[in-house]
Design a protein that fits this description.
Length: about 180
């Protein structure tokens, strides 16, 4: 088990790089099967999902497109509870199969806001693909089509997820260690 220190917090390995790669490949295989005739558009939620999106799409073998949106609800390590749209949708998704690619579904508020916003553009369908979901923290009813990992409520960093903008570049996922 590896330990890293980022700013004032200590983190230990939660999920190895090999486990992440395996699950990303499995998700892509499911998407390839489920959407073989759909030509989906993947909407990657920045900043956290950029690494996951890149690795996922390298394994997706069906015709598809990708675009990026940015929604924010975190301040440091705590969800602010308020979703702020920073960069909006810039592609036409009417009558398209949309796959939202998210790094983590925590309370579900960000995802609910994203889905509500996308539905105004009349897509054929909307699917959720997330690297992590925290089932015990979910406050919204969501149909998560593809989830790589269900994780406990601790704060995590690495593989695109950050602590105060640091740690996104870590190849493994680390969980904060309670100090004291």
């Amino acid at each position: 088990m590896s330990i890293v220190k980022i700013k004032d917090k200590t983190f230990q390995t939660l999920i190895s790089e090999a486990e992440i790669k395996k699950r990303v490949k499995e998700l892509a295989e499911s998407i390839n099967h489920d959407m073989k005739d759909k030509n989906p558009i993947f909407l990657s939620v920045l900043n956290g999902a950029f690494i996951f999106t890149a690795d996922l799409l390298r394994e997706v073998t069906i015709p598809c497109e990708v675009s990026f949106v940015k929604l924010a609800s975190y301040l440091g390590v705590i969800s602010s509870g308020k979703v702020k749209e920073v960069i909006g949708l810039n592609v036409d998704i009417a009558n398209r199969t949309v796959v939202i690619v998210e790094d983590i579904v925590d309370t579900g508020h960000t995802m609910r806001r994203m889905i509500d916003t996308l539905q105004l553009h009349h897509p054929a369908s909307i699917h959720i693909c997330t690297l992590f979901v925290k089932p015990k923290k979910l406050e919204e009813q969501l149909n998560i089509d593809y989830a790589a990992f269900e994780i406990p409520n601790g704060f995590i960093v690495g593989y695109g997820l950050d602590y105060d903008q640091q740690g996104r570049n870590l190849k493994e996922v680390y969980q904060a260690v309670k100090e004291g």
